[in-house]
Design goal:
The protein has 505 residues and is an alpha/beta fold. The protein contains 14 helices and 18 strands. α4 links the parallel β4 and β5. α8 runs antiparallel to α9 and α9 crosses α10. It starts with a strand and ends in a 6-residue tail after the last strand.
Length: 505
């Protein structure tokens, strides 16, 4: 029997169902009432409505005073902020406020399983709060080695191609990650991903019917393993691999139970990142719509020139005396208009391609293309380019073009007369450097500290936080970084730093 506290839950049948299944249930209407209840001092599970921002600390204090029971939050609507609150409070699940009986019972079962298998030391619990998306895989693997006492660990995540891709591994250089991927059903991790059931492995794989046909050769130094599928409901997110070497104490069933607890935290962290990316995707589609409308307007102008000149040529050809010199000028104007249309369409195709194919290309060409596209959006701002010599980088041209479009649109988003945007590039040792500087009003030091927070745009009128967050993620995916400096009244400078190939001899 478990002690369960319901706080502000407006569904009395939940309490009735919990009591009918043998649990002792206390129901209160508010956090204040919960704090006064003697039952709150020692419970196994708290189920509460998502607290307001000013009530978070009160719920956190209640959790601490009750000996850190497991928490399930019921969200009034599927908002990103509800997921963030759950993440900050370490909730095992964040459910809608009106879940089905099946969803509710499964969540309670998972939470109580986690409670019974929880490590003796609360300090051993992993903490992924506040991690940047690009830092999360390493944080997960490092915590797995620490909390579960693994000699090495790796995290594989399911890609859009339905293959498992290595996100982080102890002892393997990052440049090899993109080369390692396996199909579902292939090797140990692929088999576990396919079946959806965790495995405790000891001894040779040939002796285990679950891994028939899988070679033990890559595991010759491994004494025992836990391979755990990371799933949110029925949706596969990835696989966590934990190994102990020969000579170490082998993993045992209690370790598998602890791995289940750990996996719950990992899934919650990965889901939090997915929600952020989902919101970013929605914002991205909105931005593409704005850009598409601006590009359509830009194409409309040269189309008008072409049609006008073609009309003039048609009329002239009907005359007995044709003005050849004027006709030649009209033809040149028509060609100029068509070249302009071609360039705009080509640049836009590159922008929306979004492909992950990597190749060598001139970063300056990507910047020029981004400038032509963004120029359709930042009307009223004078954009100048200073891109003196080619800068060869390795990566996705379309992805980096997207990053620079975001930076330029961001720099031109402030409605102020006479504003200027300067884009420069140069080589600095083994790096290609590019700056996007504007003459806007700048931002405060406090705002600068949260500039790349995906929610910054909602708090600051000047910047589109998601655009800058996405740009930095893209640049970091390419082994670089995005830095910012700003001073009120003097504008803002965004600096892109990317690994570059040496100048050709």
């Amino acid at each position: 029997m478990s002690e369960i506290l319901l706080i502000g839950v407006g569904r009395p049948e939940f309490g009735q169902w919990l009591e009918a299944t043998g649990h002792e249930v206390t129901q209160v209407s508010s956090l204040e009432e919960a704090a006064r209840s003697p039952k709150a001092a020692a419970v196994d599970l708290i189920i509460a409505a998502t607290p307001a921002r000013n009530e978070e600390s009160q719920l956190a204090g209640l959790l601490e005073g009750a000996g850190h029971p497991v928490l399930i939050l019921l969200a009034s609507s599927p908002r990103l902020e509800d997921a963030r609150v759950g993440f900050r409070l370490g909730a095992a699940d964040v459910l809608p406020s009106d879940p089905t009986s099946e969803t509710f019972s499964e969540a309670v079962s998972r939470a109580l399983t986690r409670r019974s298998a929880a490590p003796e030391s609360v300090d051993a619990e992993p903490d992924f709060a506040g991690r940047e998306p690009f830092e999360l895989p390493r944080a997960i693997v490092d915590a797995a080695c620490r909390v579960l006492r693994a000699d090495d660990a790796s995290l594989m995540l399911l890609g859009a191609d339905e293959r498992l891709h290595l996100a982080y591994s102890c002892g393997l250089a990052g440049e090899f990650y993109q080369e390692i991927s396996i199909a579902l059903g292939e090797r140990v991790a692929g088999r576990i991903a396919q079946t959806g059931r965790p495995a405790l492995i000891g001894g040779a794989l040939e002796e285990d019917p679950r891994f028939s046909g899988v070679s033990s050769e890559p595991r010759r130094k491994v004494g025992s393993s836990i391979v755990f599928p990371l799933k949110h409901g029925e949706r596969l997110l990835g696989v966590l691999n934990l190994n102990r070497k020969h000579g170490s104490i082998s993993f045992a069933p209690p370790d598998l139970a602890r791995a289940s607890v750990f996996a719950t935290q990992v899934v919650l962290a990965l889901e939090n990142v997915r929600l952020l990316k989902q919101v970013a995707s929605g914002e991205g589609m909105h931005a593409v719509g704005r850009i598409a409308a601006a590009v359509a307007h830009e194409i409309n102008n040269p189309t008008g020139w072409v049609l006008s000149n073609l009309g003039y040529l048609r009329d002239e050809l009907l005359k007995p005396e044709m003005a050849r010199e004027e006709m030649q000028g009209a033809i040149e104007d028509a060609f100029s208009g068509m070249h302009r249309i071609r360039d705009i369409v080509r640049d836009f195709q590159i922008l929306i391609a979004g492909d992950g194919n990597h190749s060598y290309f001139d970063l300056n060409e990507a910047i020029r293309a981004a400038s032509r596209i963004a120029g359709a959006v930042v009307h009223g701002a004078a954009v100048t380019l200073d891109l003196p010599s080619p800068l060869t980088v390795m990566g996705s041209r379309s992805r980096l073009s997207q990053a620079f479009v975001n930076l330029i649109v961001n720099a031109g988003s402030e409605e102020s007369p006479g504003r200027k945007i300067s884009i420069r590039s140069h080589r600095e040792g083994a790096f290609a450097m590019a700056t996007v500087a504007d003459t806007g009003r700048g931002i405060t030091a406090a705002q600068l500290a949260t500039l790349f927070d995906p929610t910054f745009g909602a708090r600051g009128p000047r910047f589109a936080g998601l655009g800058l967050s996405i740009s930095r993620d893209i640049i970091r995916e390419h082994g670089g970084d995005l830095l910012a400096r700003s001073q009120e009244g003097e504008g803002t400078v965004l600096t892109v730093r990317l690994p570059s190939e040496p100048d050709p001899a």
